[in-house]
């Protein structure tokens, strides 16, 4: 973020507005509505500002700007058409460590005044950091149509009963379920119909009802390969109801940022060289520990939990211990990385089937990974393969793949650092080393991989050739 979003309490605090025109008038009106002690300074004022001063809503300071006007101010806004005056206000405020906004000049401003959707006490602010105010206004207009005006009274009612709700619903999960009922049930409906007394009565009745202890549960969520835009709506809802989020190393920071801000986040990712079985046992025990407290636990796994994610083992453990669970599928790496590399996994002219395997199993020659010889018309996708490329290439060639079979190695698929290395199978290891391909990376082998240079649309494309690399060296 270029700016830190902040809502300020200005009631009774001095704010200086320099300028006496229409823009200054709008700023003064907004500040006065927030309860600020507004001082407006200028050589001349609009008729409306004069009226506001007559009614005591603002104070007027007549004359050219003087730094002394800033004495006692918490904020300053420069809204004149004279750039020299605006710069003087910004400079004087900076010297006093007072935040200042210069209208339509982001570089001189130390804070920005956002576009606002007002459903007080619910207030939504939108800012582009001064770079695109029209865009911010467009977003505000869209939100205005989405958010009913009854949200303000609903927020007020929730605030009035907040202490009682905490008393009657001591666990986080039970409180969250109560608030879900409050936002979606008869209270909200009554407020939309302007029946405030009925809304409050419904809330009181619900609070008085006995609530049984809420059992904990685990939601197994596939986080996809990294791009937060590929998260499903159901996964997003799960992240926002989680009390605890257990995440592995492949769950991107952008996806984690979409979870509840107050959720407990625990990294349980496996690292190379450790005892993975012991780590998996700790994951099982951690899920059980938190679920038994009544918490909603989201087990967040990169890609899809049921594709090389040990999700089945985790569900078996939960069922054996009587813990309720749900599963939210995620987009697995083979689908997403291929799509972001412009590679169709199947194609009427080039591939009629696709096989998913881990490179670890494939390099060892496990029967599960090599149930049939690979040949033309088949796409193979290998997960977790960077460290296994030499053995993997050998095994592929032994199983019938030709040396000139196209491959694509997708590094950091769907993320901003995505690179796609394309070449022929016999050059796979040398090209990957030459271009320093790192995990996480997915290997695609088959005729469809040759389509990447033509259909590539995201990230960086590298068309590998060992002869060219030798010439460059």
UniProtKB/TrEMBL annotation:
Pathway note: Porphyrin-containing compound metabolism; siroheme biosynthesis; sirohydrochlorin from precorrin-2: step 1/1; Cofactor biosynthesis; adenosylcobalamin biosynthesis; precorrin-2 from uroporphyrinogen III: step 1/1; Porphyrin-containing compound metabolism; siroheme biosynthesis; precorrin-2 from uroporphyrinogen III: step 1/1
Domain Sirohaem synthase dimerisation: start-end pairs: 150-207
Protein keywords: Cobalamin biosynthesis, Lyase, Methyltransferase, Multifunctional enzyme, NAD, Oxidoreductase, Porphyrin biosynthesis, S-adenosyl-L-methionine, Transferase
InterPro entries: 4pyrrol_Mease, 4pyrrol_Methylase_sf, 4pyrrole_Mease_sub1, 4pyrrole_Mease_sub2, CobA/CysG_C, NAD(P)-bd_dom_sf, Siro_Cobalamin_biosynth, Sirohaem_synt_dimer_dom_sf
Domain Tetrapyrrole methylase residue range list: 217-428
Superkingdom classification of source: Bacteria
Reaction(s) the record says it catalyses: precorrin-2 + NAD(+) = sirohydrochlorin + NADH + 2 H(+)
Keyword Nucleotide-binding: no
Signal peptide segment: none
Active site per the UniProt annotation: 248 (proton acceptor), 270 (proton donor)
GO molecular function: NAD binding; precorrin-2 dehydrogenase activity; sirohydrochlorin ferrochelatase activity; uroporphyrin-III C-methyltransferase activity
Siroheme synthase central domain span: 119-144
Record SUPFAM superfamilies: NAD(P)-binding Rossmann-fold domains, Siroheme synthase middle domains-like, Tetrapyrrole methylase
GO process annotations (BP): cobalamin biosynthetic process; methylation; siroheme biosynthetic process
Family according to the record: Belongs to the precorrin methyltransferase family.
Protein name: Uroporphyrinogen-III C-methyltransferase
Species assigned in the record: Candidimonas nitroreducens
Species lineage: Bacteria, Pseudomonadati, Pseudomonadota, Betaproteobacteria, Burkholderiales
